[in-house]
Amino acid sequence: MIIFVFILGLFIGSFLNVCIYRIPVGKSVVFPPSSCASCGHQLNYIDMIPFIGYFIFRGRCRYCKASYSIQYPLIELLNGLLYALLFYKYGLSLYMLLYGIITSLLIVISIIDLKTQTIPDGLNLFGVIIIVFLGIYLFRDNYLTHLFGFLFGFVLFLLIAMITNAMGGGDIKLMGVLGLLFGLTGIIFVTMMSFIYGAIISIILIATKKATRKDYIPFGPFIAIAALTYIFYGNELLSIYFNIFL
Ligand SMILES: [Zn+2]
Prior knowledge:
Blueprint: H1 2-22, H2 45-48, H3 52-56, H4 71-90, H5 94-116, H6 121-138, H7 143-164, H8 169-207, H9 220-245
């Protein structure tokens, strides 16, 4: 079963690559079918076998031999592994479905933010629709915390954006989306973790001279990693925290 989930994750990962490539340029993610960016030859099913196809054809187009970025198989592999981990943690459940969709969405958001310094509104909107659709049932005992979570994430990052000018509109909306998903405690956790990740990685980038103090470092990926931390270890880390401090 877990192998099936992993393979499903690879195939969805393959679709995520299409999203990452097409959404920023405003192309449809369903039509036309994938084609080689170099020669335009339409890819058939054997070319699109995720991950493994990359190694069979040694990262090259079968038709024109143009090489593909290693980014494609890596994203497929990442999505497959995260799906397998989600299945391991949540079993076959609506939470696995919800977190699976959100995990894939966070991958797409992170890569697009890294490449274009923006998070497309459509992606945040997609997140809201999925969360509301499944949340009406899943969060039925506790709507209020999810509402407060949305307000906390959105308003806090709006204030940070107004004060520091370092946050984009996409980050503010993404924090609203995740607040709606995780509720108040969860979004406070995500806020703190995202700043910790942001600080650590910025210090590393500046220390290794990969970035300077003046460079703009997209914040979306830090929010995404913090959200994944919450999905996988949130309860464990929070209970450690409460045991130590309360
Ligand atoms: Zn080609």
